[in-house]
Design brief:
The complex is a heterodimer.
Chain A: E1 12-21, E2 24-34, E3 39-43, H1 50-58, E4 65-70, E5 76-79, H2 93-97, H3 105-114, H4 130-143, E6 148-152, H5 160-177, E7 180-185, E8 190-192, E9 197-201, E10 205-209, E11 212-213, H6 218-224, H7 226-231, E12 232-234, E13 241-243, E14 249-251, E15 256-257, E16 277-279
Helix pairs in contact in A: 3-4, 4-5
Chain B: H1 5-29, H2 33-53, H3 57-78, H4 83-104, H5 112-117, H6 125-154, H7 156-161, H8 166-188, H9 193-205, H10 211-236, H11 240-255
The chains are: A alpha/beta, B mainly alpha.
Chain lengths: ~280, ~280
């Protein structure tokens, strides 16, 4: 197994980054680093700022506070969360590969073989299943030989076996190319096994840490099966506060505040690893 | 030969159709039909303002269509109303304001039907020059913007993340759309411009394997519709603009027949659309 190497220079580093829109903070106080060969998984409920954070990483959005440092000449491959391609657009998988720039035919063939869909080269993208489409999008992103791959919910709309297969594919890509990967998931408890760091967002970094192997947990092992256990891992959250449905925040000491941001006096800044999660 | 009004009409119709086909493909792919309609309707306001200021009609229509497009982008960003409602407001208020303004200008005698439904048989040599030069500029612009526009049509986020600046391409495309409307107005009229954008593109879908192929095919189908419609208009003494649209419709209906070859677009496996 290849592990992330902390000695390598980061591809991207967010320090205290925040984004404001329409008078409110979409996300605030995000610290995050992705190094070559490292897999960072962002998790959090809907509207927690995961996609906004991804936009900071890809450089599409500038932070309204804090800093975003990207390695010089960083090339980013991006797999978006949702795509709705109108059926009137005649777009084959092959043509999709050349969407943002020309690619030699044999490179396209190799990329499609690597994601396991060479037989679909001439299929129109609208006819693909969720899993096939994700593979096509992955192949397209890989063709650019990116230093950093940003995957926004790559297993959305893919069934369980397909999910395991896609995680195995992502790992193979990481092992072969040593690119850094930022993966976004809405699943709060199960993450890709190879993940080096999990960051749980809810408008800010709620907690972060390393996931625990499924193999160590007999109940999950029974639930997922042996093959899945190699691809999936469990993330145990250690929060010192709960987000209430009305947007307010209940802290560990029972008090309730309107917001939950660094500096409101309720977050305990512990820096040691505590089990699998870490307070932020 | 250019002295013959019918030859001039044919050249004008074909010139506009060749330009409208590729532009129309993006309108269809990006689901902007109502948007195109709104820009076209605003042309009447441009006509009225041109009369008021004594400027050229083409310039007036171009500028107003552009302003309406920018107004829409700004209002969209404010997010108070849905795009759909905004388009409805802009589209019909621009058309109505234009009509009211024309009524106030009692000194201007205009052929309103000509503006609304086209007056291709009255096309002058200058109009022809404008159509062909303007059309060539529009086609060159679309060719230049092709990659960012197509990438943004598939996914704005991919285009942005990979540095293609889709927002800039989108604004440039609106400029080109305003130009298409300004040159197409005389041929099919304000109310029918969108049909020349959409129907040939929709017809081409059935027979195209690539986006590029569909753009070329839409241009050719539009040209056939223009020639067929004008011939019909001459033979049966029907209004020329609407006749071109009816010819385009007939081609579209013919494209729905079970031709051998490619599967029809409508037969893409239902429920398996690429929307993960």
């Amino acid at each position: 197994m290849t592990k992330a190497r902390p000695d390598l220079a980061p591809l991207v580093r967010l320090s205290g980054a925040g984004v404001r829109a329409a008078g409110r903070w979409l996300v605030r106080g995000v610290d995050l680093t992705v190094r070559p060969g490292e897999i960072v998984t962002l998790i959090g409920p809907n509207g927690s700022g995961k996609s906004t954070t991804a936009r900071l990483v890809t450089g599409v959005r500038r932070p309204d506070e804090g800093r975003v440092q990207r390695a010089a000449g960083l090339s980013v491959g991006y797999v978006p969360q949702k795509l709705s391609i109108d059926r009137t657009l005649p777009l084959t998988v092959e043509r999709l590969m050349r969407l943002t720039g020309p690619q030699p035919a044999d490179a396209v063939r190799t990329a499609l073989e690597e994601v396991g869909i060479p037989h679909l080269a001439r299929a129109e993208v609208q006819t693909l299943s969720g899993g096939e489409f994700q593979r096509a999008l992955l192949a397209r992103a890989m063709l650019r030989r990116p230093d950093l791959l940003v995957l926004d919910e790559p297993v959305q709309g893919v069934d369980f076996t397909g999910e395991v297969a896609i995680y195995e594919l992502i790992r193979a890509i990481r092992d072969r190319t040593r690119c850094g990967i930022l993966l976004i998931s809405h699943d709060l408890h199960v993450v890709m096994a190879e993940t080096d760091t999990v960051i749980c967002l809810n408008g800010h970094v709620c907690c972060s840490g390393t996931p625990a192997s499924v193999v160590e947990s007999p109940e999950y092992l029974r639930l997922f099966g042996a093959r899945a256990a190699g691809a999936l891992a469990i993330y145990r959250h250690h929060h010192d506060h709960t987000h209430l449905p009305d947007g307010r925040v209940q802290h560990a000491d029972g008090s309730v505040t309107d917001h939950c941001h660094p500096g409101d006096g309720h977050h305990h800044h512990a820096h040691g690893e505590t089990g699998s999660g870490r307070h932020a | 030969m250019l002295d013959d009004f019918f030859v001039r009409a044919l050249l004008a119709g074909v010139g506009v159709a060749l330009t409208a086909g590729p532009a129309g493909c993006f309108i269809v792919w990006r689901r902007m039909a109502y948007f195109g309609d709104t820009m076209a309707h605003s042309a009447l306001l441009g006509v009225a303002l041109s009369f008021l200021l004594g400027s050229s009609l083409t310039a007036g229509v171009f500028v107003i269509a552009m302003l309406v497009a920018f107004a829409l982008i700004l209002l969209e960003r404010r997010g108070a109303l849905s795009t759909d409602a905004l388009l409805g407001i802009l589209s019909h208020s621009a058309l109505a304001t234009g009509l009211v303004m024309l009524a106030f200008m009692s000194w201007v005698r205009v052929d309103l039907m000509g503006f609304l439904f086209g007056d291709i048989l009255a096309v002058s040599g200058t109009d022809l020059l404008l159509i062909w030069i303007g059309g060539a500029i529009v086609l060159a612009g679309i060719a230049l913007l092709w990659r960012p526009l197509l990438a943004a049509t598939v996914s704005t986020e991919i285009a942005e993340a990979e540095g293609l600046r889709p927002e800039r391409a989108r604004i440039a495309f609106m400029l080109l759309m305003a130009a298409v409307i300004a040159i197409a107005m005389k041929v099919v009229g304000i109310l029918l411009i969108t049909s020349l954008l959409i129907i040939p593109a929709a017809t081409a879908r059935r027979f195209a394997a690539t986006p590029e192929g569909m753009a070329v095919l839409a241009a050719l189908i539009g040209a056939v519709a223009a020639v067929g419609g004008l011939a019909g208009s001459l033979g049966w003494d029907t209004p020329s603009g609407p006749s071109i649209v009816v010819a385009a419709l007939l081609l579209f209906l013919a494209s729905l027949l079970p031709w051998p070859g490619r599967a029809p677009a409508g037969d893409v496996v239902p429920g398996k659309a690429a929307r993960p």
